[in-house]
Amino acid sequence: MTDTLPPCPECASTYTYPVDALLNCPECGHEWSPETADSADEIRDSVGNVLADGDTVTVIKDLKVKGSSSVVKVGTKVRGIRLVDGDHDIDCKIPGFGQMSLKSQFVKKVSD
């Protein structure tokens, strides 16, 4: 194959390989579509919807709050998110918890 494959958008590994219509990373296990590799600056939710500032999302998995015995329950609705750079790419206020950072892989966009 003469084409060079793009690095993994999750861990930046250069050892990516194609499987059917997807690209895979052997180091972190991330799978992605080559079409979305071009739009790496977009932040997507757990099902692939593009997120934007001000969106409303729901939590898809119980999340332990670091440094506390509290848990953000599945189905918690979070309004007015703000997208930021970094591993935890969503800043938001969660009802009952206050200001918090979330990973986009644990939320699903709510259709308005």
From TrEMBL:
InterPro entries xref list: YjdM, YjdM_C, YjdM_N
Domain Protein YjdM N-terminal span(s) in chain numbering: 4-33
Short name of any one Pfam family annotated for the protein: Zn_Ribbon_YjdM
Family: Belongs to the YjdM family.
Domain Protein YjdM C-terminal: 43-110
SUPFAM superfamilies the UniProt entry points to: Prokaryotic SH3-related domain, Zinc beta-ribbon
Protein name listed in UniProt: Zinc ribbon domain-containing protein YjdM
